[in-house]
Every structure is written in C-alpha cells, then in structure tokens.
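Exercise 4. Each item below gives a protein and its sequence. For each, produce the structure-token representation.

Item: GTP-binding protein lepa (Cylindrobasidium torrendii FP15055 ss-10).
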Amino acid sequence: YPCDVIRNFSIIAHIDHGKSTLADRLLELTGTIPTAEKGKNAQFLDKLKVERERGITVKAQTASMFYDYNGKRHLLNLIDTPGHVDFAWEVSRSMAASQGALLLVDASQGVQAQSISVFHIAKERGLKIIPILNKIDLPAAQPELMAAQMESTFGIDPADIIRISAKTGMGVPEILRAVVERIPPPTGSTEEPLKAFLFDSLYDRYRGVISLVNVQSGILRKGDKIQSCHTRKRYEVTEVGLMHPEEIPTQILYPGQVGYVACNMKVSAEAHIGDTLHRVGAPVDSMPGFKAAKAMVFAGVFPVDTRDFPKLEESIKRLTLTDRSVTIQRESSSALGQGARLGFLGTLHMDVFRQRLEDEYDANIIITAPTVPYKIIDRKGVETMISNPTQFPDVTDSGAGLTVQEPVVHASIIAPEDYFGEISELCYEHRADDLEHKYLDAGSAAPDGSARMMITCVIPLSEIVTDFFDQLKSRTSGYASFDYEDAGYRSSNLSKMVFLLNGKPVDALALIVHESQKDKIGRAWVKKLHKVIPRHLFEVPIQAVVGRKVIARETLSAMRADVTAGLYGGHYERKMKHLDNQKEGKKRMKRVGQVDLPQEAFFDILSKK
Ligand code: GDP
Ligand code: MG
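Answer:
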C-alpha cells in the first residue's frame, strides 16, 4: 500500500448529529459490513451495551475499508469519535492519527456547543475539514439557513458543504469521493526507521492487550522486535492487521496505515496512549504525546453488602481494562466499610461506568456524592490536592492559615435568545463569573423567528458535576447545548461540612460547600437523614457542622419500647420471626457511635437529590 491510496479520517460532531449512523453507512457502502435491514439501525461501531442503550459513543472505534476510485483501490481508515464533553480526550487522540475530519452538523438543529469545540480541536491539529449537513430528510431540516450558519461560525464556503441523510444513505457516496479527493494522504516512507504512534488499546481475553497504531514511517511486521519510547520495554510482535471492522491479520503494516498490534503486553497500562513504538536498536524521536486524561470527578464506590468487596474490586479491575481513563484507589470508610475511590473524566463518564458495573457484573453498589479535586495551600505556599472530602482540613480555623482553590471551567452554552434570561440566572445560581454573550447567527433568524445566542462564562467545576446539565435542559425545553473546557484553578471560600449523629461524624457523608450555599445544603441534608434513619431507643440529634459551627439540626425522637413488646400475648412463633428479621437487619447495619445506620439509608441519601 503506497501512501497515496491511504486516507485516515475521523467523524466529528455534536452528540446525536449522526456520527455512528454515518459510520455504518460508510462501512456498508464499501461492503465492509452487510447492509442493515431497512428501518434497523445497527450502529456497528457502538460496541458496548451501554452505548447502544444510551445511543452514545463512549470509546473511539476504528475501522478500515476498501474503496475503488479512479481505477485504484483505496484504503480508508475511519476513526469514530465520541461526542460528549467528558470524552474530549478520546476525540483529540482519534484526531492525532488522522489527516482529515468529517464535520457533521444536523440540518434541523444547526451548530451546537460541541460542534464548535471539536471544530477547534481539528483546526488546531491542521486537519482538512469536510463540512457535512446531515438529516436533510427531516421535515424540520433547514439546509440553507444552517449552511449560512456554518459559514458565519466556521468560515466554511457553503459550496463545500455536502448535504446528506445518513439514515437513508442519500448523498453518502459523495462523502467517499470527497475523502479521497480532499483529504491529503499520510506521508512517511518505507525507507525510514519504524515509527508507530499508539493511539488506543483494546483488551482481548485471549491475546491480552492489543494496541491500535498509526504507522508514521517504516514497516511493521509480525515477528519484529519493537520497543516503547515511553517505558523502554521490549516486545516481539505476534500479530498485526487491520480493523475491518473486526481484526484481520495482515502480516505487515505500511507507512500511513492504521491497524492493530498484538505483542504480549500483559496489562493495559503498558499500552501507553500517545506512545511511540520503534524497532529495537533503531530509536526514533518520540511523537509529541498529548495531555493525559485527567480525572476531574471523584466518587467512592462501596458494595451494599460489605462482604461483596472482593467481588466489587474484581469487577472494577476488569472494567478498567477497557476504560483506561478511570483511576482507582482503595478507600475505607467506618460507615460503608471497604470500597474504592474512582476518578472519572466527568459525570457522564461516571454514570456510564456505574451502569456498566451494574450491567456487566451484577453488583449492587453505593456511590458517594461526586467531588472535584481541590487545592489546599498553606502559609508557605505548599499545595496539597484533595479529592476526598473526608481528608479536607478544617479551613475555617484562621490560625491554620490555609487557603482553598477549586477547579473552574470555561462553559459555553448555545440556545435561542428567548432563553437568555433563564440561562444567565441558572449560571449565577451556580456561582458563574465573567458571563458574556453574542449572537451566533449573523442577522439570520432561526425557524421560530428567534436568533441563536452563545453564552460563555467561567463556572466552578463542582457546580456542573451534579445536575447543571439536566437543569439547563429542562429550563430551556431541551434547546440548549453545553460544552466546557478546563480553565485552571481559582481561590474560593469553601469549607467542609460534616454530619453528626448523636455527636459522632459519619465520614462517608462529608461534603465540600461554598460559603453562600452552606445553610441551604445543610438544612436539606439534615432533613434527608432524618427521613431515612430508623428511630432508636434514645433520642438522636442529627447535625450539619462547618468548622465548629452547627449549621442545621433535626432530632430523631426516641422509639417507645422494644419492638417485640407491642406483640400482644407473645405468640411465640411470631415473636421469633420478628427477632429473626431483626437479626437479618443487623447484618446490613453500620454503627456510628451508638446509632445504627442501614446501608440502604446511604443508598437513599446518595442516590436521590
Ligand atoms: P451520534 O451521537 O453522532 O453517533 O449520532 P447517532 O448516529 O447515534 O444518531 C443520533 C440519532 O439521529 C439516531 O436516532 C439516528 O437514527 C438519527 N439520525 C442519524 N442520521 C439521521 C438522518 O440522516 N436522518 C434522520 N431522520 N435521523 C438520523
Ligand atoms: Mg455515536
């Protein structure tokens, strides 16, 4: 395969604009997969069950296809990318192996928040962009208007825009032609030393770790002795091949090709994303890797039944083989027992992981409230990162001289102008700063007559990891789209809130709260606890405390007497049964001081808002 017949490209778009559907059509049109039955949407590349259920792509998937054009057989390598903000990291690594990108915009919805962010990533990487308007079969499609919008937002010539329906297949053949004609072939010669860029990895139960690579120069053969620039570890290549879309062994990979390599890597961590592989004894300069995925949302995960911990830990380990961006640490809590503290890229990532854990491994789990990583700075300027509220120091004691910084993000929201008031209110409620707005459609009106607006602000990450997106959707009737990017750290008036039962703190329930919100949050949580904790033989005060100050308090009144006392006449059998039930209940109870807390109470508190 000389380079000039190879094209490497990704599909980029806002979520739901049709990437996976288009990927399926391209694979069908090139005969890579059988044509789906009419009306069925196979979404071939969305492999994970949770992806199919939620209709989102979580992990970038790669597929090669053959396409005959101008009398020549071309090898097209497609890299499907996820569309959600949490997975921006997956998007940028897919693009690192491509020379071009299909920018897909839904012709009924127009440019959305992530259309803009993925466009910028592609531009920065110098990719050739092929603009596409999808879903032109929809009655609500406005191709003229949306083409004008793409022109004003991206500076794209409307004449370059391909109009398609990924659903019916209309216009899709033109995309294949455009891929060959407009996207430059990769460069790199067989004469140069081997240099392969590792951009993703899979885990195969039998063969172990499989790396996906883009050969930048040289030839990669079965039997080659290769070495990693990053770890300096050496391997023998046991198999190479194409993803077509399942693995097809080929003996050899040429420059410009995208394919897989199996080389007896034992653990996923050995396949370092962004690494460069070379031949043993022929070192090359490593390619600039990219920013490693950074966990920004942390939560504790505990089994409902504490005896299940080994099973839970095993499940987590197996899942992280296919999702490398989750970080794991052991954690133990006096209230919840042995568990793990996991770090995620964002809240959707956390939800997806939780669902996979529940689906694939049938584990009953409790997940604590999500937190972001905070920076604690002492008088001498020494920084400590804290991502577990229980480890958060008492910063209200001014003698300690500690200051707190929290991560903030640049958020951008696109919505019809009518919702501007609602959106800015929501942002301010969530401690937003530097709010700005501008019109997206240069003078042109949307179908309903209102112009669309882009609102940007700086907002604490902790404010958007809970329910910000859901609220945004509901307050704008689903019309708003949202994206964010890292904007560093800012000083903030935050402190730890602890909950006391009968004077004893419950470690699993500590929260980090902002000065302006502590009263509201304290009252709400104390009320929730009051509802779920069973009554005891004595009175149990429930308190929310910040520093040394009690913010809110409820009192759980005492139960009158022994449970069995009420059973008149003492039907022996009935009494025994009751005691048995009580014993059964005890197993699941956790003691905090003298207060019994059913494990399920935590589940209630933490899973409901
Ligand atoms: P992704 O999130 O970008 O991967 O989007 P999907 O490919 O999963 O598509 C999102 C939804 O839009 C699915 O329900 C598709 O069936 C639908 N869809 C995709 N392309 C078209 C199209 O051309 N026309 C219509 N009417 N629906 C489409
Ligand atoms: Mg998809």
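Check: Residues 19-20, 46, 56-57 surround magnesium ion (ligand 2) (CB under 6 Å).
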